Automatic annotation (TrEMBL):
The keyword Hydrolase applies. The keyword Zinc-finger does not apply. GO terms for molecular function: hydrolase activity. It comes from Streptomyces glaucescens. This is Hydrolase. It comes from the Bacteria. Pfam families: Ricin_B_lectin. SUPFAM superfamilies: Ricin B-like lectins. Residues 1-16 have a biased composition (Pro residues). SMART domains: RICIN. InterPro entries: Ricin_B-like_lectins, Ricin_B_lectin. Residues 400-516 form the Ricin B lectin domain. Residues 1-23, 271-322, 354-393, 524-567 are annotated as: Disordered.
């Protein structure tokens, strides 16, 4: 039996190819003196089929009751102005409508299909609509602007070409493609923020950045972090959700928004079931026209979970990752032809600084701050592509300050007037000898951001950041070791006299550095008092400036002294900084 679709219009236009009105504009024309009689038929033509099919999934029957549930959901959503993308709101309303009907004894008597355990009855008995392992993604998705939700949902879950959500938003395809990249990054940033804000313990907050950075850059998790994931279900679920960003977000989004019937809804999507027939077996069809940086990500979506770029230990046989599976959707990206005049409106309107949400009725896309991230196919063991030198206070700066060696008590110095080829050494600590650590892993001289620290065979020298020698990436571990990513068996250490050497990693005090953030221009030449952690003394916390220091995990563990605690007392200030939002 054919599902009962609305009779108006008899030949509904495809979303994105209609008269050029966005969903938001159509919603605004539903009522009032200037009501447009075409608004409701167009909205039904765009979204009825998906709502009806999900209602049939929730009821476990394609009977007329599914059309009734879809109609009730439309009436509820269209009569209640609110923010967020229209399709996810309609599907959520369908789920709540069916659950409410199943709880009504009178309706259950009139509609026997409400008693099916595989349908409405099972939905009503579900203790939590959103699974516990998707709580962070739920909070992160609802914090996105409505336009970002629309782009993610229709490209990832519905597996539709980019022209479809572009038409729903009233923008052209190139604009939508740019906004989609930003929406994906913003969604991930919201997940990281939710993990920090909802962390049940101080230890979970401490591991926030230690989970985020290596998974984003493709590195391995520290053994301490892996052990924490085995013991902490909250952080283990967080790692699983962050790992979803390696490829398709469809399972994560569907389980987050829908919960009940998410997998069946994914399998029912026309864009997910039709396209693979023209592709090679086991591979999704490659996009005909893709934005730069999307090819590797599209390719990763066809891989199983265990071969993603940011595999966690669970994917390698460690921490279990139950329920994580990636399908192979075909994401076909087309070219739009509408005006680019709405780009400023969609990308510039937003809430307060640092707030990813929007007010009711605002569906504008807010772009996340630009940052440097590796392409999905990048190999963390090879040098990064040539970076662009940026001034101090760059948006992707993770930490800034001077690096004080624990054994020598002096700081890493760029060698007087910074210039390419100058050997780094040790000098009295001052605000002039600061370093900038950014997301690309390079360690730049704050005095001249075009110069980076290069770890040679035995010495550390300054080199042009754009030259191959200047593209040495580092990990600053929680123990204070400064390790070249390409060779984690070596470490930057204090040498004889005032020299700095690159030698084999042994975990000694000479290979440990404290990153101290200081106020610009503050003279810090005063002698530093030595503290012995083993005797119970605690050093005073480093002065925290406007930029919050950040410690990044290493690619491989190193030996630690027996008397060193799991979280050294000298790092209490950094622990507090890591628990706060990044600066």
């Amino acid at each position: 039996m054919q599902p009962p679709y609305p009779p108006h219009p008899p030949h509904p236009p495809r979303p994105g190819s209609g008269p050029g009105l966005s969903d938001r504009e159509l919603l605004a024309r539903l009522g009032g003196p200037g009501a447009d009689p075409r608004a409701l038929p167009l909205l039904l033509a765009r979204h009825w089929r998906a709502a009806h099919e999900y209602a049939a999934i929730c009821l476990a029957t394609p009977a007329s009751s599914a059309a009734m549930a879809a109609g009730a959901a439309f009436r509820q959503v269209l009569g209640t102005p609110a923010g967020g993308a229209l399709r996810p709101r309609l599907l959520t309303a369908v789920r709540w409508t069916v659950a409410g009907w199943a709880a009504d004894a009178g309706l259950t008597a009139l509609m026997p299909e409400l008693g099916k355990t595989t349908g409405a009855r099972g939905l009503r008995a579900t203790r939590a609509v959103t699974p516990e392992r998707r709580r962070l993604a739920e909070r992160a998705f609802h914090a996105l602007p409505g336009a970002a939700q629309c782009l993610l949902w229709h490209t990832e879950v519905e597996a539709e070409p980019i022209t479809i959500p572009a038409g729903l938003l009233g923008i052209d395809a190139p604009t939508a493609r740019t906004a989609l990249e930003r929406a994906r990054e913003q969604f991930r940033a919201n997940c990281v923020r939710a993990h920090r804000e909802l962390a049940p313990t101080k230890e979970c907050r401490f591991h926030n950045r230690l989970l985020d950075v290596p998974m984003r850059r493709g590195g391995a998790l520290l053994p301490d972090v892996q052990r924490h994931l085995q013991e902490c279900r909250y952080c283990r679920y967080a790692a699983e959700q962050l790992a979803s960003f390696d490829g398709s977000l469809a399972p994560l989004l569907a389980e987050t928004v829908l919960g009940w019937g998410a997998r069946r809804y994914l399998d029912s999507r026309p864009g997910r079931t039709a396209a693979p027939a023209t592709a090679a077996p086991g591979r999704a069809a490659a996009p005909a026209t893709a934005a730069p940086g999307r090819r590797a990500r599209t390719r990763d979506r066809t891989r199983p979970a265990a071969v993603g770029r940011h595999r966690t230990t669970a994917a390698r046989g460690g921490v279990p990752r139950a329920g994580f599976r990636r399908p192979a959707p075909a994401l076909l990206i087309g070219i739009g032809a509408t005006s680019v005049a709405l780009l400023a409106t969609l990308l510039a309107v937003g809430g307060r600084p640092g707030d990813n949400g929007v007010g009711p009725g605002s569906d504008a896309t807010r772009g996340a701050p630009g940052s440097h991230t590796l392409h999905p196919g990048a190999d963390p063991t090879h040098p990064a592509p040539p970076p662009t030198a940026a001034p101090a206070g760059h948006a992707d700066e993770l930490a800034r300050g001077r690096l004080r060696n624990r054994l020598a008590g002096r700081c890493l110095d760029p060698g007087g007037a910074p210039e390419a080829g100058a050997r780094a050494g040790l000098a009295h600590c001052s605000s002039a000898g600061q370093w900038s650590y950014r997301e690309d892993g390079l360690l730049r001289s704050a005095a001249d951001p075009a110069l980076c620290l290069d770890a040679g065979d035995r010495t550390a020298v300054l080199a042009d950041c754009a030259a191959p020698a200047g593209r040495t990436r580092y990990d600053l571990t929680v123990r204070g070791e400064l390790l070249p990513v390409r060779d984690p068996g070596r470490a930057v250490a204090a040498g004889p006299g005032a020299t700095v050497v690159v030698t084999g990693r042994d975990g000694s005090a000479g290979q440990r550095w404290d990153l101290e953030a200081v106020d610009d221009g503050a003279a810090e030449n005063r002698p530093r008092r030595r503290f012995d952690n083993a005797s119970g003394q605690q050093p005073p916390p480093a002065p925290v400036a406007r930029t919050v220091p950040a410690l990044l995990p290493a690619a491989a563990p190193g030996p630690a002294s027996a008397e060193e605690p799991a979280v050294p007392a000298a790092r209490e200030a950094v622990l507090t900084a890591l628990a706060a939002p990044p600066g």
